[in-house]
Amino acid sequence: MALTLRSSTSFIKLKDSRCFKTLDAFSGMVCFAQIRPSCRLRAKSLTQEAQFSCERTLNLEDRRNEKWEKLHKLSDTHGENDSRVPVFVMLPLDTISYGGNLNKPRAMNASLMALKSAGVEGVMVDAWWGLVEKEGPMKYNWEGYAELVKMAQKHGLKLQVVMSFHQCGGNVGDSCSIPLPPWVLEEISKNPDLVYTDRSGRRNPEYISLGCDSLPVLRGRTPIQVYADYMRSFRDRFKDYLGEVIAEIQVGMGPCGELRYPSYPESNGTWRFPGIGEFQCYDKYMRASLQASAEAIGKEDWGRSGPHDSGQYNQFPEDTRFFRRDGTWNNEYGQFFLDWYSGMLLEHGDRILAAANGIFQGTGAKLSGKVAGIHWHYRTRSHAAELTAGYYNTRHQDGYLPIARMMGKYGVIMNFTCMEMRDGEQPGNANCSPEGLVRQVKMATKTAGTELAGENALERYDAGAYSQVLTTSRSDSGNGLSAFTYLRMNKRLFEGENWRHLVEFVRNMSEGGRSTRLSKSDSSRTDLYIGFIKEKSERKMKKAALV
Question: Which pLDDT score is estimated for 70?
């Protein structure tokens, strides 16, 4: 099956995408031809020209006001008259090579053109700390990202750029390995307590421990200073694109870019779904903080260690004395520990977002922060998997409202995952409820007055997943979504049926998710239409057309 994309000015013809082994092969099959626009499109073009002519006569102040409105359009809360939800698509994790160049630029150019034809608002890319600052402290290489920004601008696409201060590799969906900068790894080798540590002493190199946020442990700079210098360098390098092409900066605050502890690491089989995970508070900096907090309330014994009865990574809540139904999570000690553990995470997020807000304020780019969708054991009283990750969310306590308020303080969008999941798809013994979790987060952000955006947690191409996102995107209960980012662009996305689902999903999101089911075929004859046609050819190939 070949995919044919058509717009008012060009079309793209592809051979059977199942035969493409690489995106380079995909790009090699792209061709263009000018087609005559319809009367309606010519009229639209004349209207746009008239608008452009009018805009040229605006005075400087009007231009500034117009630009401000344009830059903040993405962040507007969706009311009755503006229910559109823009869709972004995540780019591959290795979009930028280890050498700092744009990977497979021809394939990327073709892919961006196809996404634009589908009505996608823009794309998301990770700006890896391990790539940009790998040559040494404050030696930044943004060249590959500059090439991508210009390419996105050429196609009229927006960019969401993630300040990725974590390593790539060892988690769900990680298809490549990008460690922290070599000079940072040198410091870690000298002082292993710079990274998160579990009860057994296992070190996790994904992200610098928040316990040393304010200590000059990275060659004279604190981690927060290092992150701030990195973001400031990005701002200065791309100041001409911020707020226009670069619409959003997502600030990484933990493993996978999420505000959480690395409580469920998949590397080397340490953790497997649906294990409860483990607390990550045993580096010397976290232990010193715990000790100080315990002494401050006259409970010195409580500060000597984390819970001794909280089990191991792959256990269930009822297997442990701490997390079981009437466990110690809910006694005075448990409440003290969980307050401290989650509070440290909130303070970490506050420090980074305060720095980011100061750096990007006035640029027109929105800020966002990502929160993990930890939906397993959600139906239990203790919510064990959420607790080990740093979210103090139990049957008796809302763990997401404090996070939403912290982000809202800086006008930061909360980006939440697992928007595509349904309760009925999960294993019964795991007590999952992704739908209940999403409802809770929507209410928390609504109460806090914080914007909410969403992502899918796992790669999905089926109509059911898209329909669930359409349902959760609405503001019927709690906050609606200000944007949705689809995970992830790869060759499978461009295959006929998968592509059709994406195109119709984008269209439905542009209509505010009013239709929550994807049709088997699209006969609406809108500007963004996909249907299946039969063509007689020597090869008797079927082609999918975007008309």
Answer: 40
- Label residues 299-338 b or e (16+ Cβ within 10 Å = b): eeebbeebbeebbbbbbbbeebebbbeebbbbeebbbbbb
pLDDT value at position 514?
54
Higher pLDDT, 25 or 119: 119
Pick the closest to residue 75 from 515, 356, 479, 401 (CA basis).
Answer: 479
Active site (annotated) includes residue 459: no
Mean pLDDT of 236-246: 99
Output the known binding site.
126, 166, 174, 370, 375, 417, 456-457, 488
Lookup: tokens for 36? 């005559």
Assess whether 451 carries a catalytic annotation: no
CA-based radius of gyration for the chain: 24
pLDDT computed for residue 478 by the predictor = 61
The number of residues making up the chain comes to 547
Burial class of residue 391 in the structure, from the number of CB atoms within 10 Å of its CB (0-12 exposed, 13-18 middle, 19+ buried): buried
**In whole angstroms, what is the distance from residue 434 CA to residue 421 CA?**
6
Measure the CA–CA gap between 127 and 178, rounded to whole angstroms.
Answer: 11
**26 Cβ contact list (under 8 Å, min separation 6):** 14, 17, 20, 107, 110, 111, 491, 494
Which position among 133, 455, 495, 504 bears the catalytic label? 455
Q: Are strands 530-534 and 542-546 parallel, antiparallel or unpaired?
A: antiparallel
How far apart CA 546 and CA 12 sit, in angstroms, is: 10
Q: Rounded to whole angstroms, how far apart are CA atoms 374 and 266? A: 14
pLDDT tens-digit series, residues 365-404:
999 999 999 999 999 999 999 999 999 999 999 999 999 9
Binding-site residue set for substrate: 126, 166, 174, 370, 375, 417, 456-457, 488
**3-state DSSP call for residue 102?**
strand
Beta-sheet pairing, 122-128 with 542-546: unpaired
Q: Sign of the C-alpha dihedral, residues 41, 46, 49, 50?
A: negative
Whether 61 shows a pLDDT value over 80: the answer reads no
CATH superfamily of 87-275+347-511: Glycosidases (3.20.20.80)
The active-site residue, picked from 133, 206, 248, 258, is: 258
Instruction: Give the HSE-up count for residue 60: Cα atoms under 13 Å, Cβ half-sphere.
Output: 0
- The full set of domain ranges for the chain reads 87-275+347-511
Q: Provide, rounded to the nearest whole percent, the portion of the chain with pLDDT above 90.
A: 75
- Rounded to an integer, what is the distance from CA 20 to the centroid of its chain? 27
Cβ neighbours of residue 474 under 8 Å, at least 6 residues apart? 83, 480, 512, 513
Please state, in angstroms and rounded to a whole number, the distance separating the CA atoms of residues 286 and 284.
Answer: 6
Per residue in 115-171, pLDDT (tens digit) is 999 999 999 999 999 999 999 999 999 999 999 999 999 999 999 999 999 999 866
Please name the helix (run of DSSP H) or strand (run of DSSP E) that holds residue 159, with its range, or none.
Answer: strand 158-164
Six-digit token string for 436: 């209940």
